[in-house]
Design goal:
CATH architecture of the largest domain: 3-Layer(aba) Sandwich
Number of helices: 14
Strand content: 5-15%
Radius of gyration: 21 Å
Order of helices and strands: HEHEHEHEHEHEEEHEHHHHHHH
Pfam families: AAA_5 (PF07728), AAA_lid_2 (PF17863)
CATH topology of the largest domain: Rossmann fold
Shape: globular
Organism: Streptomyces lincolnensis
CATH class of the largest domain: Alpha Beta
GO molecular function, one term: ATP hydrolysis activity
Protein name: Magnesium chelatase
InterPro entries: AAA+_ATPase, ATPase_dyneun-rel_AAA, ChlI/MoxR_AAA_lid, Mg-chelatase_DI-like, P-loop_NTPase
Number of strands: 9
Structural class: alpha/beta
């Protein structure tokens, strides 16, 4: 059944043009949840939200739980049903984090505009897998697991370095060239046109492509924990972290997990340096000292030059 028939009109994941890094980060985080979430940065209109929603539909068959900017503590972690409470019938009301655990993915659009206190709570639950609520007559602790994706437009403000570091991977939306812009226009026009048809070969093929990708992700998820990481690759990751002056040790741990997820996704027998090299920008761009002091999130030739000799064949 097509998504149009289900009443959800989101461009299929397999038909989103470009933004390969954003797609890869979402997929790696799904294959290896301990990575701890994805932060996407980019200007408005770069398909960040479309991609997150399309990905959630593909892997969870549900739209993600979306956190509103004005969310309160009660709405996020849960509280009491107000109407029932006024009748003298205290009844707990689950929050958005529990809903996310049921649906699989929590999406925070414009996370840089959300209260730091709430971002901290959410990231704590993602990293520990435990939601502990001790307030206003509530004393509960629940095990929760869900994927986390945040998006932000750096032109509208940043995130504190402490919060940036808590997101496992960070990717920057790329500007499309003329050919990609052309394909984007064509794809959106085709999609809108196909939605008006009773039956659409275009939508059916897109659904088959999405299903095939989901199956690949599930297979990778099953084998990721058994994919070996040779000691020389672990050592290589530590040296790369030192070269880019990564703040803290979370970056190299996440880079190793992401490299293993990539190896599992590609069906490799073990992690090789090439897997690590591809994920380094995602794991380290937001953990460089210059980024912590308001610098750019871009990962350019200067960053590549810091580590390229490490990955050259002996």
């Amino acid at each position: 059944m097509s998504r149009a028939a289900e009443g959800v009109h989101i461009l299929p994941y397999s038909r989103v043009v470009g933004q390969d890094d954003l797609k890869l980060a979402l997929e790696l985080n799904y294959v290896s949840p301990p990575i701890g979430g994805v932060l996407m940065a980019g200007a408005r209109g770069t398909a960040k939200s479309t991609l997150v929603r399309a990905f959630a539909l593909m892997v969870h068959e549900e739209l993600p739980v979306t956190l509103p900017i004005n969310a309160t503590d009660d709405r996020v972690v849960g509280g009491w049903e107000l109407d029932a409470l006024m009748r003298g019938e205290p009844r707990p009301q689950p929050g958005l984090l529990e809903e996310a655990a049921e649906k699989g993915l929590l999406y925070i659009d414009e996370v840089n505009l959300l209260d730091d206190h709430l971002v901290n709570i959410i990231l704590d639950v993602v990293s520990t897998g435990v939601l502990s609520v001790q307030r206003e007559g509530l004393a509960t602790a629940k095990h929760l697991s869900f994927g986390l994706v945040g998006t932000m437009n750096p032109e509208e403000g940043g995130l504190r370095p402490q919060l940036l570091d808590r997101f496992g991977l960070m990717v920057a939306a790329s500007q499309l060239d003329t050919d990609a812009r052309h394909r984007t226009i064509r794809t959106v026009l085709d999609f809108e046109g196909e939605l008006t048809r009773k039956e659409s070969v275009w939508l059916e093929q897109a659904a088959r492509d999405d299903n095939a990708r989901r199956d690949q992700l599930e297979q990778a998820r099953d084998r990721v924990s058994g994919t070996p990481i040779p000691e020389d690759v672990v050592r290589l990751c530590a040296r790369a972290a030192e070269r880019v002056a990564a703040v803290g040790q979370r970056g190299e741990i996440v880079a190793t997990l992401a490299a293993r997820a990539l190896a599992a996704l590609e069906g490799a027998d073990e992690v090789v340096p090439g897997h690590l090299l591809r994920v380094l920008p995602m794991a380290f761009r937001h953990r460089r000292p210059e980024t912590a002091h308001g610098g750019t999130f871009e990962w350019g030739p200067e960053d590549e030059s810091r580590v390229e000799d490490l990955f050259e064949p002996a």
